[in-house]
Amino acid sequence: MLKTLNEFKLGTTGQIKKVKGERKIRRRLLDMGVTPGTTVLLRKKAPLGDPIEITIRGYELTLRKSEAALVLLEVEEE
Q1: Residue range 43-48: average pLDDT?
Q2: The sheet that has 2-4: what strands, in order across it?
Q3: Does the pLDDT at position 78 exceed 70?
Q4: What gap in Å lies between CA 43 and CA 31, rounded to an integer?
Q5: Residue 4's pLDDT is what?
Q6: Contact partners, residue 17, CB within 8 Å, separation at least 6
Q7: First to last CA, the chain
Q8: What is the pLDDT of residue 48?
Q9: Which residues pair with 13 in a beta bridge?
Q10: Which fold has domain 2-77?
Q11: How far apart are CA 46 and CA 29, in angstroms?
């Protein structure tokens, strides 16, 4: 099942299928290691849902909810 990263629940793992967005924001995400084929784990969410913290490529990365909405993943476990 495909979902955007901002729809994930805590502890959910998924594999990135596509990174959407305009040039600058897409390039920024790709430069941070958010690339297709990479596995992502949602670790934390702020009380109001923004920002979120993910584990990707062995490090923790914090993203805004608007950035997370651009990352399309296939859910591995819920």
Answers
A1: 91
A2: 2-4, 71-77, 13-19, 39-45, 52-56, 59-63
A3: no
A4: 21
A5: 92
A6: 2, 36, 72, 73, 74
A7: 11
A8: 85
A9: 41, 77
A10: SH3 type barrels. (2.30.30)
A11: 20
